[in-house]
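Two quick folds needed for the group meeting slides. Do the first one here.
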Amino acid sequence: MRSVKSAGLSLLLLSFLLFIADSYPNLDLSNVGCEECALRRNIHLPGDHSVYQCMGCCFSRTFPTPLRAMNTMKNPKNFTSEATCCVARHSYEVQIEWAGIKVRNHTECHCNTCYYHKI
């Protein structure tokens, strides 16, 4: 009788844990801490002008290097990576009076080739 109570208690505990795990929302945790690429106000530049700049994340991926590309590499690598960055489609210069500097005020953002990857 004692083993039946123990088995019943274990089954009850297991079903309770499965209920909690099933009710927990299914989250895609691959981009936690990095929001989608969008136009956001730059809070580090106070003043009259609201300066908006592109902030956020875009995709990056890694894939096996094709054989014909690997044959042309000076230092062959098994994997190749590709990334895009959150960049401005359109922007214009704004003068920050109190600091005497010019900054780019973005008007539209999108994911595109990272500037530091372009040659």
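Then this one, please, same format:
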Amino acid sequence: MAKLPSITVTTLDRARLYALLDRQQEDSDEVDHLYAELERAHIVAPDELPQGTVCLGSRVRFCETATGKIHQRVLALPGDMALYPDAISILSPAGAALLGLSVGDTIDWPYRNRTLHLQLLDVLPAEQQ
């Protein structure tokens, strides 16, 4: 991967993600990348997460810079996908890439035989349906 932006993850999200990753039956690039992301993350208490930083349950607006397409999704664990009609799984390439980013950050994330180029535009609280 190219130079990665710094990321911040809460202690709660880290615990939930390690529990999820430890239960995964098969190896995948996303699982490996998420482990690496958690290892390099700055970890804070949930009430210390800086505003504008992506955590599980955040509504994120991001741009695929290669295409200019803008998406708005809620970052969710696989078991929480039904809570949000516009959820994106933390186990998807874009979902894993967005974890811990701050508004304005860009990241290049490997995906199959190409690279996703993402820019985080905004972080809003998610509202469950």
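Slide caption for protein two: DSSP finds three helices and seven strands in the chain.
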